[in-house]
Design brief:
Elements (H helix, E strand, L loop, with lengths): L2 H5 L6 E3 L8 H9 L4 E6 L3 H15 L3 H4 L2 E6 H4 L4 H9 L4 E5 L4 H9 L3 E6 L5 H7 L3 E5 L5 E4 L7 H15 L4 E5 L5 H9 L4 E4 L1 H4 L8 H8 L6 E4 L1 H5 L8 E6 L2 H6 L3 H6 L2 H12 L23 H19 L2
Helix pairs in contact: 2-3, 3-6, 7-8, 10-17
Length: about 325
């Protein structure tokens, strides 16, 4: 068992990615009760949503003290810089086991997180992000590769997961021993967990595969489409951020299924930025009609490994069994 797993009393070194508006209270609590780190997707820092979903997680966990020690939340750093009310509410009213910060400088919020007793998790997308996260006081680093679904570094500025993990592991061993490293991006089964461990990670943060579970807040129709797709069917771009009026920093973009509206605009990003009104109306009509040829499904390259929509606990059991089998093969 790794130090990360021992720290949170996990049965498998696995954390739920705090996917904004998808990783709600039901999914986070299911993961925590199943023996993994469950992080509510506080994302853009909507206080009402975060408070509701975090309370759902607490109510579902009930009196299970061990599971409560595996419950936390995640936020987008650049949005917290605009409004940190959800983070402030969480720290004032609860004792999360961990709080994750992604996409921006974690230092303005790190002190209040560490002072609350929560373990600070910082997601990074390149090696140059690592010293900043350590300076902030991160106990856990998540090295996210560009294979990941949803938001991440652009293909030009990011890293591939399985080249990134060992380099980050070596840096941490030399400069910040005692800090835990999680790999993320393109990992969707026990084989991927075992591979990340073999490369020097202390565990894995998993998004896309846990997105495709019964407890996830994503629309059932979107989940069905994911099951029918393969790993060739996603792409990174700014298309859906522009269509949704999300003003993300240019160093980040969004991996999603490459549907009709994505193909229409992916080679005309500048035109879309300069004249988005018609495309936004088209997207809005797609939302009203549940038309996923026009609506985004944020998912990673591991989509081809998603073959069903199980309950989270059942999936975690399968991942653990497959991880154990893969580790046995690695060790001969």
């Amino acid at each position: 068992m790794t130090g990360f797993a021992e720290h949170f009393d996990l049965k498998i070194p696995l954390a739920l990615a705090p996917m904004a508006l998808a990783a709600g209270g039901d999914l986070a609590s299911a993961c925590a009760r199943a023996g993994t780190l469950g992080l509510v997707g506080g994302g853009y820092g909507d206080l009402e949503w975060t408070a509701r979903e975090y309370q759902i997680a607490i109510d579902t966990i009930g009196g299970d003290a061990a599971a409560m020690g595996r419950l936390g939340c995640g936020f987008i750093s650049w949005k917290l810089a605009e409004n940190s009310a959800a983070l402030d509410w969480l720290i004032a009213n609860h004792k999360p086991a961990a709080i994750m910060l992604s996409f921006g400088d974690p230092r303005p919020f790190a002190k209040r997180i560490v002072s609350s007793g929560a373990a600070l998790i910082c997601q990074i997308h390149s090696l140059k992000d690592l010293p900043l996260a350590i300076e902030a006081g991160a106990k856990i680093i998540v090295a996210q590769g560009t294979e990941a679904g949803g938001h991440g570094a652009t293909q030009d500025s990011g890293r591939g997961t399985f080249a990134f993990i060992p380099e980050a592991a070596d840096w941490i061993a030399a400069h910040a021993p005692g800090t835990y490293l999680l790999g993320a991006g393109g990992i969707a089964d026990g084989r991927g967990v075992a591979a990340a461990l073999a490369l020097g990670a202390d565990g894995v943060m998993m998004g896309s595969r846990l997105w495709a579970t019964k407890e996830c807040l994503a629309a059932p129709k979107a989940k069905e489409i994911v099951v029918e797709s393969d790993g060739d069917g996603t792409a990174r771009s700014a298309v859906f951020d522009i269509l949704r009026r999300k003003n993300w920093p240019e160093i980040f973009d969004f991996r999603a299924i490459r549907n009709d509206i994505h193909r229409e605009w992916e080679d005309r990003i500048d035109h879309l930025k300069n004249a988005p009104e018609k495309a936004r109306a088209d997207y809005g009509e797609g939302v009203r009609n549940d038309d996923y040829n026009r609506v985004h499904i944020g998912i990673g390259e591991s989509i081809g490994l998603i073959t069903g929509i199980p309950a989270a606990a059942s999936l975690i059991d399968d991942i653990q069994a497959e991880m154990d089998s893969a580790l046995k093969r690695i060790h001969g």
